[in-house]
Amino acid sequence: MDVRIQLQDGRQINVEIQILPTDPMPERTMFYWAKMYAGQIKAGDSYQKLKKCVTINIVDFPCIPLQQLHSCFHLTDDATGHRLTDVLEVHFLELPRLREAILAGPETDPLTQWMLFIDGESQEVIKMLAHDNKDIRQAYNLLEVISKDKLKRMAYEAREAELMDQRSRILSAEMKGREEGRVEGEEIGIRKIVQAMFARGMSLDDVAAITGLDREQVAGLQGQMQFG
User: Fold this and answer.
1) At what angle do helices 182-199 and 204-211 cross, to 10 degrees?
2) Roughly how many angstroms between the first and final C-alpha of the chain, as a whole number?
3) Any long-range contacts for 39-47 (C-beta under 8 Å, 24+ apart)?
4) pLDDT 10s digits, 87-130
5) I need a labelling partner for 9 at 20 to 30 A (CA). Which of 1, 36, 161, 176 fits?
6) How many CA atoms are closer than 13 Å to the CA of 75, on its beta-carbon side?
7) To 10 degrees, what angle do helices 134-147 and 123-132 make?
8) Is the pTM of this model over 0.90?
């Protein structure tokens, strides 16, 4: 899932949630950050129109080898730490590090509370967080409204079922890849997954979001299926 936000002062924020492991996640992040940053101006515009762009990645798999829940990156000098510019800011929030963060610090930390809320381990934990944090309470109340909407609930449940199916297919593809050769197996597995997702009537954007592939890669696979 991706959420694109533009603040009143022109700054842009992209929030991405990735459930399935994506190996080149840092490179993928910088690619989309660069598109967001460069997309602010057109030929002939002044560089002064460029505003800060922030990318926030919430992932359900280990991504950055720093053994911490939250990692934040800027563009700085290697020797002195001097920041060249403040226009670039990239965050990684890794759900698998959540338990370590709880052991290392108090659960009253707002960032840890939000990650616990997103993780949603149990209804009791979510209710407790909503009681202690007014911002989380607002989000929880919104979820309560959505859960009472039959159509939205059905859409959510269908989405969850689809994600479970994709995990199963990817696991099968990985196992087959080990038997037939890692590279060839991954390509075959991803192609079959994408084919099955399009057969279910999913959109190109949904396929890209679930598989972690670039939109252009998915479009290429779709073209191969049409002319293959």
Assistant:
1) 140
2) 30
3) 40/12
4) 999 999 999 888 777 777 666 788 888 998 888 777 888 888 89
5) 1
6) 9
7) 130
8) no
What single-letter amino acid sits at 99? R
Sign of CA dihedral 110, 112, 113, 117: positive
Longest CA pairwise span in the chain (Å):
57
Q: Which residue has the tokens 């840890």?
A: 112
Q: Which of 152, 149, 127, 151 is nearest to 140 (CA)?
A: 127
Non-local CB neighbours of 19 within 8 Å, separated by 6+ positions: 60, 163, 210
